[in-house]
Specification:
The protein has about 300 residues and is mainly alpha-helical. It is about 55% helix and about 10% strand.
């Protein structure tokens, strides 16, 4: 896997130009990438600790721009046209699937045609809940730092129980840090079709994060926002499912539709438990040593 480290040449140059193109050489490392279900115990704890340290290093970073607007302007759930976006994507996917010959339909497209009204209703209901439970003004005052933005199991390379490399920094930016915490907790659950929200795993992750964060622990408002960030992530994945209906092949679709529907049910059932248990593990923790600031 390509690391962020660029290898300088003998003269100390990190890149060179030739025929109008720019070239650089990156360090590469080998190691396993695990599934979400394989990250537990010491691995789960170390993932949370590394994320907390990253957030500490970049807290107060002012250079560049605040990417929180991305959530508001581009997200189907925070944007002004949230419901309209889902209605439009549903219309396009339905027209495409209905236009196919019966023999051309994949199993996922058949499932969609049978349940499409239910899927749209669920999306619109969840958008309404998100807007009600996490208003724009609350989102705007949540603590921000530079986050990875896609910190989940498939972007972490391991060496034993330790993290050797974090991949894919394309979505990094200054955003609410709790958005990053939600990313690691659920995204592989949904994409792999696991239909259970593992509350114990959520709580264990938050506990390890809080212990490492010390004085920069997640605030109570962030903890209360965590379930809604999970809802936001699931809505993004639900949005993608409508897009995938336009593909001839969607190997995860038949499982993912059901998994997402079940996830929303689990989230509504366990939301208060997540908040109360994450609050409980955050009380009375000792402060961690300060992390040196980056040059």
């Amino acid at each position: 896997f390509p690391a962020l480290n660029v290898i300088d040449d003998k003269e100390g140059h990190s890149y060179f130009e030739m025929r109008g193109l720019v070239y650089s050489v990156n360090e590469f490392r080998e190691g396993p990438v695990l599934r979400w279900g394989e990250i537990a115990g010491a691995k789960l704890r170390n993932a949370a600790i590394l994320q907390a340290k990253l957030h500490q290093l970049t807290e107060g970073f002012e250079e560049g721009f605040d990417s929180t607007a991305y959530l508001v302007e581009n997200s189907p759930d925070f944007g002004e046209l949230g419901k309209g976006l889902f209605i439009n994507k549903h219309r396009i996917a339905l027209a495409y699937a209905e236009g196919l010959d019966t023999q051309e339909l994949s199993e996922t497209q058949k499932l969609f045609l049978f349940n499409h009204e239910l899927y749209l209703k669920i999306c619109l209901t969840q958008v309404e809940k998100l807007r009600r439970n996490l208003p724009i003004e609350v989102l705007g005052r949540l603590p921000k730092c530079v986050i990875h933005g896609d910190y989940y199991s498939r972007n972490i390379v391991w060496r034993g129980d330790e993290i050797d490399l974090v991949l894919d920094w394309e979505t990094a930016g200054k955003m609410p840090r709790v958005y990053d915490v939600a990313n690691e907790l659920i995204i592989d659950v949904l994409s792999r079709g696991n239909t259970d929200l593992k509350v114990d795993k959520v709580v264990d992750y938050v506990k390890a994060y809080q212990e490492a964060a010390g004085a920069n622990k997640l605030t109570q408002e962030e903890i209360e926002a965590l379930p809604e960030m999970l809802r936001e992530k699931a809505l993004r994945l639900m949005k993608n499912r409508f897009d995938y209906m336009l593909r001839g092949r969607d190997t995860r679709g038949a499982i993912a539709w059901k998994a997402l529907v079940k996830f929303f049910e689990d989230l509504d059932t366990h939301k208060d438990e997540i908040i109360s248990r994450c609050t409980a593990v955050s009380v009375g923790l000792p402060e961690a040593r300060p992390v040196p600031t980056a040059d």
